[in-house]
């Protein structure tokens, strides 16, 4: 059969039926897209899908909070931390005695019904000093950690985003500062400037900012080559917008974990500086300073003057670490 005869031949019944159904489907699709009601329905469906995606972020956050509240580790740490926060805020109201005024007739008394934690060498109630001593350490350490987190986040974003010379130059400065122990760095500033609370906050915040910047830099480098960053560059967004609006929300998890971890280190650092005489000064109640003034009496058997301030420091640091471990477990999951 020639090509002309094949073209002129009628289609088989099955082929004709298939062609007819295809044409009918095409006409129905065109009709649907031309129908305003159908278009409105499609738009509503798209909006509902978008809403579902937007609400999923809130659902994840609520799920994370639920997991934290069901974690025994987190609850124990939060309970201990809450107790010390209450002591820091209402310490003078709940302390059984004046933490500064002593009694020469009741010095170095062992724990008893009148003085649960005993008295120190100046006759001051140790329990009252432990309760009120939480105030300054829970002011200096969190503020220093907040300052360090803000500074470290900014430095880490700049290093991870620009890389190249910016990363190399700033990285050398960070390495040079961190080559010295934090206590030595604190001495360099505290000796000429004094040991007031603002000075301690700034010193600890600066050093911790350099430490936190390393973690943030690593997280930013992992986000740098993802599609949403490339899309923001194609939209001609500014570098500041990409760093703080696009990248920063995606690295908040590591930043939150780093904040809680550094808060524990900040508490220990403040106590160490006070123990060495470069922190909060007497007669203000302070755990580190009280240990420094009382540990010399351990050989005489006055163990309570050193033990209870040390237990206060340990319990607060342990509480922060329990909270940090719980948050890290939820964020990693």
Secondary-structure map with pairings?
Blueprint: H1 3-8, H2 13-34, H3 36-69, H4 72-94, H5 126-132, H6 134-162, H7 164-178, H8 182-193, H9 197-224, H10 227-234, H11 239-247, H12 252-275, H13 287-294, H14 304-332
Helix pairs in contact: 4-6, 4-14, 6-7, 6-9, 6-12, 8-9, 9-12, 10-11, 12-13, 12-14, 13-14
Question: Rg from C-alpha positions?
Answer: 33 Å
Average pLDDT metric: 80
Q: What general form does the structure show?
A: elongated
Class based on secondary structure composition and strand pairing: mainly alpha
Count of β-strands: 0
How do you describe this structure in short?
This protein is mainly α and 333 residues long.
Q: What does this protein look like?
A:
- With 333 residues, the protein is mostly helical.
- The protein has two domains: 12-70; 77-332, MetI-like fold.
- The chain contains 14 helices and no strands.
- Helix 4 crosses helix 6 (134-162).
- The longest helix is centred in the first third of the chain and has 34 residues, at 36-69.
- The relative contact order is 0.12.
